[in-house]
Amino acid sequence: MNKKKQQTEQTKKKIADAARALFTQKGYKATSIEDIVKATGCSAGNIYYHFKNKEGLFLYLLEEWNTEWDKTWLAKEMLYPTTIDKLYGMAEHLALDQLNHPLTKASDEFFNNSEKAPDVKERMNELVKGYLDFNRQLLQRGIDTNEFEIANISGLAIILDSLMLGLNKHSLRMEREEALEAYRLAMDVFLYGIAKPAR
Amino acid sequence: MNKKKQQTEQTKKKIADAARALFTQKGYKATSIEDIVKATGCSAGNIYYHFKNKEGLFLYLLEEWNTEWDKTWLAKEMLYPTTIDKLYGMAEHLALDQLNHPLTKASDEFFNNSEKAPDVKERMNELVKGYLDFNRQLLQRGIDTNEFEIANISGLAIILDSLMLGLNKHSLRMEREEALEAYRLAMDVFLYGIAKPAR
DNA sequence: TTTAACACTGAACTTTTATTCAGTATTATA
DNA sequence: TATAATACTGAATAAAAGTTCAGTGTTAAA
């Protein structure tokens, strides 16, 4: 019962790796099963043996990416004492992570496609809710530690997510150092703004 | 020679309007000619009579969108005396006019997926550069009028664009008032930040 | 060794897609 | 009125896409 499980894991990973690269490069819709077949060397039927369908394959990649991000962040979070430090740390983490896994381009396309089965929509909504919850918690901690003076936590969770979302797009055209700098600057602005203090 | 020209203009506009809405909502690849046929009520052949092909239709929309944005903003800009006012005005304008920024989503997809002519790519790059130039000019004015104290104008132009870009994505799931509020809040943050002043 | 579960193939099937074109109706021109 | 140009139809075409499934070889269980 070992060699089979091992084989399954191996090909599932092979398919996932190829699909991730292709979705990243070409986008969701423009990546065909045939593309994945060519990239992996295995048959179309085999892909459907391991994944329910194209949508399921993509959602699998998103969720995998998500849990991976959570894991690495959890290991990093301890290093930052204050919430402000955490925000800069998160920005850096995102900047670096998204250079390696820029799946967001395809997921934007995927998300904005209206006609989806309810279970697919459910999984998508859970993903977005996860991001905002994460931000809310972070901001709440900053309030608790008296670092921020904000009332509208939910609103600012969206602002923060928007900032990171948009910045990711631009970072695709940047070098590593340039992207890091941009993310740091974004956090500067998020925390301190650009207007002159004396008003 | 009048009734025909008028008719052509009318149906061309009808097709463009429907296509714009669909591309915005569903993205480039996911919008089919059949979708546009259903939305307009005219035939597929008619679309190809007025536009060279799907790509040509999309490029037409991009160009039209660009000139339209410049025109409307130029008319509005006078109303806002300070640069800070201009920024809030721009945010409101973006929040309300949902035909502007949402198209960037489709154009990103279009730009990234298209393995097509380099002159098309060049035109898309010019568009992005145009936004950042616009932001840079706005920020420069704010510095000239002593409203801001920023050094890294180019960096902040990207931050501002990122904020608007990301916020637009969230605003698709919002009601009108909710979206307006979010854009206002975004500008608050951009200008004043969220950290406590006394530090 | 026999049986059953599993991993996989690849061609066939069904939809969907962009695009074309022969033909029709309407309008302008001579 | 006759002719040419224009605006449009809608069915046909052909390529590409996602998905399925009967069948094949391999591994685990009895």
Oligomeric grouping of the chains: homodimer
Radius of gyration from the alpha-carbon trace of chain A, in angstroms? 19 Å
Q: For the largest interface in this structure, which chains are involved and how many residues does each contribute?
A: A-B, 44 and 46 residues
Rounded mean pLDDT of chain A is: 84
Biggest pleated-sheet summary of chain A:
none
CATH C-level class of the largest domain in chain A is: Mainly Alpha
Distance between the termini of chain A: 72 Å
How many domains would you count in the coordinates of chain A? 2
Count of β-strands of chain A: 0
Question: What is the number of helices of chain A?
Answer: 9
Principal-axis shape of chain A equals elongated
CATH topology of the largest domain in chain A: Tetracycline Repressor, domain 2
- Parts with pLDDT < 50 across at least 5 consecutive residues of chain A: none
Strand content of chain A: under 5%
Q: What is the helix fraction of residues of chain A, given as a range?
A: over 70%
Under CATH, the homologous superfamily of the largest domain in chain A reads: Tetracycline Repressor, domain 2
Class from helix and strand fractions of chain A? mainly alpha
CATH architecture of the largest domain in chain A: Orthogonal Bundle
* Secondary-structure element pattern of chain A, one letter each: HHHHHHHHH
Keywords (chains A, B): DNA-binding, Transcription, Transcription regulation
Protein name (chains A, B): Transcriptional regulator, TetR family
Domain HTH tetR-type (chains A, B): 9-69
DNA-binding region (chains A, B): 32-51
